[in-house]
Design goal:
The complex is a heterodimer of chains A (253) and B (306).
Chain A (H helix, E strand, L loop, with lengths): L5 H20 L2 H19 L6 H17 L3 H11 L1 H6 L5 H29 L7 H22 L7 H15 L14 H7 L5 H12 L6 H33 L1
Chain B lengths: L3 E10 L2 E11 L4 E5 L6 H8 L7 E6 L2 E2 L4 H6 L1 E4 L11 H11 L4 H14 L15 H13 L5 E5 L7 H16 L3 E6 L2 H7 L2 E6 L2 E6 L1 H7 L4 E7 L5 H8 L3 E5 L2 E6 L2 H14 L4 E7 L3 H10 L2
Parallel strand pairs in B: 3-8, 3-9, 6-7, 7-8
Antiparallel strand pairs in B: 1-2, 1-4, 4-5, 9-10, 11-13, 11-14, 12-13
Helix pairs in contact in B: 3-4, 3-5
The chains are: A mainly alpha (253), B alpha/beta (306).
Chain lengths: 253, 306
């Protein structure tokens, strides 16, 4: 097998993805953190308030992707550092890029799997996006972006998962209140809107809402571009930071 | 091309210099031992050679590939049994092997075939479906050996491979190491077991406080240590004291009828003199035996600096 070939890379990526799914995703507790939590959070905001179902569905989709795609990736690196399995992995002929792309892929697949029932419920109840292909593409890109965001958090060179969970929660939880997910952007005060502009959750939420109800706060092209750019930034940022912190992480052990 | 080329490796952790300008080369097909007390720098050296740790200074090459600049190419040729790393405890032994095998880019059926062979060789086949976390220490260690071998490496790094193993398992691993050598593979192993190093290794490097103290074959180390060797020679007739004095005046010896007992630091020179003596006096050498210092004696002397 020629090292550095795309085939070697893709086998490595799928192998890491398989490992992550087997170890981290095919587990009951993930359903709580990745699925039930956003569902009940969304229900707390939407039930009994007479809000438009389509708009609510769009919010639920982005909220679910946000949580499901970034619930596990923050803890993989610190957990495997602590277990001393990361060192075992890194001593094999794989690059950091291969490992991280595998982690992102597993998280994206997991995120998308749990979104499908929500979309299907929407279809059954008559909520269908105006452009199904664009909605699907947006969902995939968003899942990759939030998975990469989770991996970015885990670049912190620690072997204590709680450290990374604290960092991730400190960033993620406030964002859901200022990104138009639970409270529409048009109803946010100015100071919150200023934060919404830099939130990665804002743009996919706004665009998906637009595909369901017909209007967006920002231009659709801007929403889509921002989603793509933020996905690229998070992915590259995760790769660069992990390459810098890997040795510090292993050295501490 | 050397199998392993370590050049001026240096590593500091805060104020502690863990490895201080360590250099050595290992030929292809050699079993090379790193021997030293706890905290000597053996594991840090191996981690730098396998690319897990970045040296502060120096360079490591595996089969000509710089481990820092061409890590994937170098790691395609190596297998590692680390002292401080684990298989995935929540994956079965089989799944751990499949994971590692696939990372070498091997086709699935090849990995399956090799995994089966290795598990049978190491008496782990019946436990292949058990979670690695539920295996005993010895079985986990054997699993790590299997995981190191699945890529059919040219160079194998074994960090305390028999540590914690029962006698039978340790013997099996040693046998496997010798079989790999016959196959032309290169092995670098660290061990606390001095006699194991003496038995297995072609050459040994003794390291202490991060520095190379001595390096050589086990025999060279014994000779260099200056420790005494006991030599006993039995001749076919009683030995004349005056004749013996003329030949052996530079050595300590005792005559017991036809037997002479020597204590010396250079048995090679003594052997030559014994043959000259026997020839000159028309004597036959019935028996000659040596009791060299043990490698443990050598190690203690070298480490203690005495």
């Amino acid at each position: 097998m020629k090292t550095g070939s795309f085939r070697h890379f893709s086998i490595g990526v799928w192998t890491i993805c398989w490992k992550d799914i087997k170890l981290y995703y095919a587990k009951g507790p993930i359903v709580v953190t990745g699925v039930l939590f956003p569902l009940f959070l969304w229900a707390a905001f939407y039930m009994g308030r007479g809000l438009d179902f389509n708009e609510g569905l769009a919010s639920l989709v982005t909220l679910s992707i946000f949580f499901t795609s970034s619930s596990v990736t923050p803890i993989i690196a610190p957990w495997e550092t602590r277990q001393r399995t990361l060192e075992m992995l890194v001593s094999r002929p794989v690059t950091v890029t291969t490992i991280l792309v595998g982690d992102i892929l597993a998280s994206t697949i997991f995120g998308l799997i749990f979104i499908i029932p929500i979309f299907l419920c929407g279809v059954v109840l008559g909520a269908i996006p105006s452009n199904v292909l664009l909605a699907a593409l947006l969902t995939v890109i968003t899942a990759v972006g939030f998975s990469s965001l989770g991996v970015l958090f885990s670049a912190l060179p620690t072997d204590t998962p709680a450290d990374v969970v604290l960092l991730a929660s400190t960033v993620k939880l406030p964002l859901i209140f200022v990104s138009g997910v639970l409270i529409p952007l048009s109803q946010l005060p100015e100071w919150a809107l200023a934060i919404a502009v830099v939130s990665p959750l804002t743009y996919p939420t706004d665009l998906l809402r637009g595909l369901y109800i017909g209007n967006t706060f920002f231009p659709m092209f801007a929403d889509f571009s921002a989603t793509v750019i933020l996905t690229v930034v998070f992915t590259l940022g995760a790769l660069i930071l992990h390459k810098r912190t890997l040795f510090a992480r292993l050295q501490k052990r | 091309m050397k199998a392993i080329d370590a050049l001026d490796l240096y590593k500091r952790f805060g104020s502690i210099v863990a490895v201080d300008s360590v250099s050595f080369q290992v030929e292809e097909g050699e079993i090379f031992g790193l021997l030293g007390p706890n905290g000597a720098g053996k594991t840090t050296t191996i981690r730098m050679l396998t690319g897990i740790l970045k040296p502060d200074r120096g360079e490591a090459r595996i089969m000509g590939y710089n481990i820092r600049k061409d890590p994937v190419k170098a790691r395609m040729l190596i297998g590692v049994v680390p002292e401080e790393a684990n298989p995935y405890p929540d994956l079965s032994a089989w799944d751990n092997l499949m994971l590692v095998g696939r990372l070498y880019g091997l086709p699935k059926h090849t990995v399956e075939d090799r995994a089966s062979s290795l598990l049978r060789l190491l008496d782990l086949y019946d436990a292949r479906k058990r979670r690695a976390g539920n295996l005993s220490k010895g079985m986990r260690q054997k699993l790590l050996v299997a995981m190191a071998l699945i890529g059919e490496p040219k160079v194998l790094f074994l960090d305390e491979p028999t540590s914690g193993l029962d006698v039978l398992s340790a013997r099996k691993i040693r046998g496997l190491i010798l079989d790999l050598k016959k196959n032309g593979d290169t092995i670098l192993l660290t061990t606390h077991n001095v006699e194991e190093a003496g038995t297995l290794c072609d050459r040994i490097l003794i390291i202490n406080g991060g520095r190379v103290i001595e390096m050589g074959t086990p025999e060279d180390l014994r000779i260099k240590s200056g420790l005494y060797t006991y030599v006993s020679v039995t001749l076919n007739r009683a030995v004349d004291e005056k004749d013996a004095a003329k030949f052996f005046d530079e050595w300590d010896y005792r005559i017991q009828d036809s037997r002479i007992l020597f204590v010396c630091s250079d048995p090679t020179k003594l052997m030559v003199r014994i043959v000259e003596y026997a020839k000159a006096k028309g004597l036959d050498i019935v028996n000659i035996s040596t009791a060299p210092p043990s490698l443990e004696d050598v190690f203690v002397k070298v480490i203690a600096g005495g």
